[in-house]
Amino acid sequence: MRGEGLGIEKLSVRFGGLLAVDEVTLSAPGGAITGLIGPNGAGKTTTFNACTGTVPVTSGSVSLFEHDLSHHGPASRAQSGLGRTFQRMELFDSMTVAENVALGPEAALAGRHLWSHLISPPRQRRDIAQRADDALAGCGLSHLGQHRVRDLSTGQRRLVELARALASGFRFLLLDEPSSGLDKIETERFAEIISGAVASGLGILLVEHDMALVRSVCEYVYVLDFGQLIFEGSMAEAQNSEVVRAAYLGSEAA
Ligand SMILES: Nc1ncnc2c1ncn2[C@@H]1O[C@H](COP(=O)(O)OP(=O)(O)O)[C@@H](O)[C@H]1O
Ligand SMILES: [Mg+2]
């Protein structure tokens, strides 16, 4: 087991006769990007859904910075600092980039009742705008703030989604195939941005098919296959592992 951050302990998720996640134990620290890789259908997205509380867990526990989230609903987990992005992007096409990004901190602040009592709305609005501006700048999107999301390229949309997550003030992020649809240059830029984001202590668990991206940002990876963890270690070790190679047989990854 590694340092605290996101802790998953003997997590199982059953869908009828299918054990989609089978006693998975992993730990992903703050201040680093940890990889969660494996072939299609391995249970990666289901593991994320179990962490955020959007699928019922059969057994096991999930904790964030040593705080047990297992019995919390999705909203409470988000308020505890656990955020995510989706394999299929969830952006509002008719809204501007800046509006989409501001939805992140708006939702986060609305969820904390204390804030709405202590801070006047104008101050809160400025705080939201500031966070959105900072995230846009960090993701190289400042010049696109007033553009509608529907007019952007896939690569730009991926960055909007990341900016919204970063603006929300989460302590830990689950990123589900964030580079799909990005070209090589965009992926390299994406890697720089998420590497920079964890320097401040944010933790990331990254599900990703692009092995070059995983290799460039993850010091430690976990490999899932048919719901079970079959490997954990460095990316270099993973690529030399016979077990991992066998799981990926026929795919480009290992
Ligand atoms: N809501 C669901 N109901 C039934 N089966 C599901 C559901 N979600 C995922 N599965 C199944 O669970 C397995 C793992 O899926 P998933 O977690 O999406 O894999 P991955 O993200 O690694 O590709 C697959 O066999 C998938 O068909
Ligand atoms: Mg998936």
Task: Characterise this structure.
This protein is α/β, with parallel strands linked by helices and about 250 residues long. It contains 10 helices and 10 strands. The protein folds into 2 domains: about 1-80 and about 170-254, P-loop containing nucleotide triphosphate hydrolases (Rossmann fold), CATH 3.40.50.300; about 90-170, no CATH class. Strand 9 and strand 10 (about 230-235) form a beta hairpin. Helix 3 packs across helix 5, helix 3 (about 95-110) runs parallel beside helix 6 and helix 5 (about 120-140) crosses helix 6. It is globular and about 50 Å long. It starts with a strand and ends in a 7-residue tail after the last helix. Adenosine-5'-diphosphate binds near residues 15 and 38.
Report the strand count: 10
Give the overall form.
globular
Report the biggest beta sheet as strand number plus sense, adding barrel if it closes: 6 strands, mixed
- Summarize the amount of helix as a percent range: 25-40%
Low-confidence blocks of residues: none
User: What CATH architecture of the largest domain do you see?
Assistant: 3-Layer(aba) Sandwich
- At the fold tier of CATH, the topology name of the largest domain is Rossmann fold
Using the CA coordinates, give the radius of gyration. Answer: 18 Å
Strand content range:
15-25%
CATH level 1 class label of the largest domain: Alpha Beta
Helix-strand sequence: EEEHEEHEHHHHEHEHEEHH
Tell me the number of helical segments per DSSP (H or I, 4 or more residues long): 10
Distance between the termini: 24 Å
Overall mean confidence score, pLDDT: 90
CATH superfamily of the largest domain: P-loop containing nucleotide triphosphate hydrolases
Strand order within the widest sheet?
6-7-8-3-9-10
Structural class: alpha/beta
Bound compounds, each kind once, are: adenosine-5'-diphosphate, magnesium ion
How many domains make up the 3D coordinates?
A: 2
